[in-house]
Amino acid sequence: MRQIKAQEITEAVKRLCMEANYDLGEDVLRAFDRALAIEESSLGKEVLEQLKENARIAREERVPMCQDTGYAVVFVELGQEASIVGGTLEDAINEGVRQGYREGYLRKSVLGDPIKRVNTGDNTPAAIHLHLVPGDHLKLTFIAKGGGCENMSALKMLKPADGVEGIKAFVVETVRAAGANPCPPVVVGVGIGGTFDMAALLAKKALLRPVGEPSSDPETDSLEQELLERINNLGIGPQGFGGRVTALAVHVEKHACHIAGLPVAVNLDCHAHRLKEAVL
Amino acid sequence: MVEEKRITTPLSDEIVKDLRAGDKVLISGVLYTGRDAAHKRLFDLLQAGEKPPVDLRGHVIYYVGPTPPRPGQVIGSAGPTTSGRMDRYCPALIAQGLRGMIGKGGRSKDVIEAMKTHKAVYFGAIGGAGALLAKKIKKSEVVAYEDLGAEAIHRLEVEDFPVVVVNDIYGNDLYQEGARRYSR
Predict the structure, then answer these.
(1) Structural domains of chain B, count
(2) d(Cα A14, Cα A12) in Å, to the nearest integer?
(3) Tens-digit pLDDT profile for chain A (280 aa)?
(4) Which residues form the domain of B122?
(5) Domains and CATH numbers, chain A
(6) Is the separation of the CB atoms in A143 and A137 below 8 Å?
(7) Which site among A239, A244, A268, A271 would you substitute to test the B interface, given the most B Cβ atoms closer than 10 Å to its Cβ?
(8) How far is CA B20 from the centre of its chain?
(9) Which of A46, A235, A239 lies closest to B127 in CB terms?
(10) Separation CA A193–CA A198 (nearest Å)
(11) Distance from the B53 Cα atom to the nearest Cα atom in chain A, whole angstroms
(12) Is A242 on the interface with B (CB under 8 A)?
């Protein structure tokens, strides 16, 4: 059985926290260029140009692209043939977040209790999602999830009779109601099916796919394209100032569900779509 | 390229009368920062009939909670946060003479009414452009509620800080008009 040191996980998470906040992914930068090519609003184009400039400054000067450096969300894919030594997985990840947010001059935005609302001071605890898989590797996917876009996300338990039209209407309405709040152009993660909890997790997992990479399932691909067109026809535009690009991409993930149900979750991510991976 | 208007804070009657939804504006002068926790404290003071620690008459509040600065930096990344969370407290501050707000996202009917009644303006800054906007901030000091950390009230000196007028004193709303213009 392969052994992975907890210390290596801490080091990797620390690095991912900083890289995600300083280096906007090439997939997002390419999506900005595609958006610039179709945006009709001059104000919208200027916003997109400034987002590119902002990303350049963040990358070159090693400063966070946005002041909301996010809730640390970490997806862990752990091979069943691997074992973690020298500490627990959870402690190792939280220590990485603690060090990354302190040493990277990132904002600490986590409160220990949602009602008492006192800051934990180190941006922990992280939201950790663990998946056991075959093999002996450990893959970490880190997202810095901003509060503004997370706040505009939504989940609804549709009736089976609502069907695919009901799903589309709910997704489009969620983006419409969000307006300028989630910092458009957004990335839209949609989870369909599963249980109440699974739908929300599917929507977040949908955000992990590189921006604009089509779904491998042709039906899902055409659903994503139709949703993207309808969302961009809302006219909200970059920063909500009006324009043709409200979303950079729509990603849909599906799962088996109960005969009585049709859960749908929409997880919005801002244009500062900060995601980095590491494989140990 | 649309022409920009250059204005200096504090904002006079003449300045706010000249601003229209959709105008691109470069702001120079002083901005005060404040977000959720500071707004709650200011609001509670006003409710109790007490004097706020900062005289906001004629001034502009920037809804921001910056990242910690690296050694040598004036301020860390400093883009706007969602304004709607401050809506509950905002009309009372406008009634006290607050002249402008910088943030992102739509405002409530009550805030928009208060802006019309008391001649205040709401500006949108580019959310998520915190690294770029920080370069326009030349000085930053905490002036109240230091215990709130990133949420403390800071006095910022800015030069050509770029914003867009979202709500003017005439009841125009860029978010509504923009979406109408580009929807299909």
Answers:
(1) 1
(2) 5
(3) 899 999 999 999 999 999 999 999 999 999 999 999 999 999 999 999 999 999 999 999 999 999 999 999 999 999 999 999 999 999 999 999 999 999 999 999 999 999 998 899 999 999 999 999 999 999 999 999 999 999 999 999 999 999 999 999 999 999 999 999 999 999 999 999 999 999 999 999 999 999 989 999 999 999 999 999 999 999 999 999 999 999 999 999 999 999 999 999 999 999 999 999 999 9
(4) 4-182
(5) 2-20+65-145 (3.30.360), 148-272 (3.30.1330)
(6) no
(7) A239
(8) 16
(9) A239
(10) 8
(11) 23
(12) yes
